[in-house]
Amino acid sequence: MAEEDSFLKRHWEEYKEFWGDRFSFLDNYSRFIKRDKPLASWSQANVDEFISSHPLHGPTLKTAREAAKFGAVGGLIGAVSTAGVTWKYSRSLHGTALSFGAGAVFGWTFGQEVANHWLQLYRMDTMASQVTFMEWWQNKVEGQS
Taking the CA of residue 132 as centre, how many other CA atoms within 13 Å lie in the half-sphere pointing to its CB? Predict the structure, then answer.
């Protein structure tokens, strides 16, 4: 039995390490998410202030926020179009609801891909800009800036 435990434990650790490497980007945000006291909400004026005050990360953050609009529009179009087609041909309420959800996810993904190419996000480090904004906001809220 001890050999089985070590075999299973070893494979479980390898599994955790494998997926931990693939989702290591989540560690960048953990210090902002896993706080005792959550950060205060920010406004569009705060984001605009950051964009104008940071010459490197400001324009990148602005472009990343524009890309989110592509995703939202894609999600809306995907959800409504797939739900509409499903309702037209099946008249099934649960099928329409499922296709609405799936269409929203697929549409959002497609919209983000369009934004990635249209706005050339692949040339920018959007995560670093978002983390820099979060650090800036944390310092501002805590009175360090």
Answer: 17
Quickly state the pLDDT bin for 95 (edges 50, 70, 90): very high
Residues sharing a CB contact under 8 Å with residue 82, sequence separation 6 or more, in sequence order: 99, 100, 102, 103, 106, 107
Q: For residues 22 and 134, give the distance between their C-alpha atoms in angstroms, rounded to a whole number.
A: 22
CB 82 within 8 A of CB 103: yes
Q: Tokens 């099934």 sit at which residue? A: 92
- Sequence-distant (6+) residues with CB within 8 A of 141 are 39, 40
**What are the tens digits of pLDDT across the range 60-76?**
999 999 999 999 999 99
Q: For helices 126-141 and 44-53, what crossing angle results, to 10°?
A: 110
